[in-house]
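[Q] Does anyone have a clean structure-token version of this?
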Amino acid sequence: MREIRITKNEEGQRLDRFLKKYLNKANHSFVQKMLRKKNIKLNGSKAEPDIILKENDMVQLFLADETIEKFRDKKTLKDTNIYFDIVYEDDNILVVNKPVGLSTQPDQTGRRNLVDQIKAYLDAKEENISFTFKPAVCNRLDKNTSGLVIAAKNYDALKQANKAIRERKIKKFYLAKVHGHIKESLELKDFLIKNEDKNMVRIVNEERENSKAVITYARPIKREGRYTWLEVEIETGRAHQIRAHLASIGHPLAGDKKYGIRDNEKYQVLHAYKLVFDGFEGDLKYLNGMEILSDIGERKILQEVGK
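[A] Here you go.
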């Protein structure tokens, strides 16, 4: 018999859905049959599949260890090397600096990605101990955009961070190097249409079918030859928003081969350098008002543009 204590990460979900995550190779009918035959109990009693789990509930599996392990697919990480810098960490969240060239999410290529590396990092610290919740990133960056990414260590942090981002209460600031000279601050309000086949977007100045509103603010902070360094804040967080929005007004990012023009930069010069938190509640209220700055080897960029 195996007992599983329900933590905050698992509470609030149906018993059968928890079991399907824990016994992730078992089919629906097997889980239902084990509950019906009382081979799986909740707090020592027979339980209905749709009962909602609470923290400190005890799920009992009256199954042989060999049977349990047969129905559990424990994924191993191919690459446990860490390619990110930790900028801030506590019991609830982890903020890391993602380098250029590292994808945020896993894809079908099987190449290294930030999510798997965060899991490996927490596994090594023995913090990734939830039975069904795995650390998840709350904001994404393009593969060739560097900078701050928020990862949630538990379900409450994930839910609250996603809500705060959705409600635009977490402010996100970027450093961008663009072609041309920009003298005044910009407030760009347009609409974005995504072409899924080409993985590209285009900006239009009026709402159209399948378009989404995009709002981008840009403030010039330094001229560098034929380029301008900008501090960019996005109110909406659409895919390729900054790249396409600035390109649409004739100021593409330096190094942006998809939306820009040929230059000597190897990658697009775009770095997510600052986050300002708000919108957290309950045990996470301590995060409100926190400002997190990227702690990077390229810190000289920040120093230079501040001159």
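[Q] Thanks! Anything notable?
[A] The helical segments are 15-22, 28-36, 65-70, 114-124, 155-166, 241-248, 299-305.
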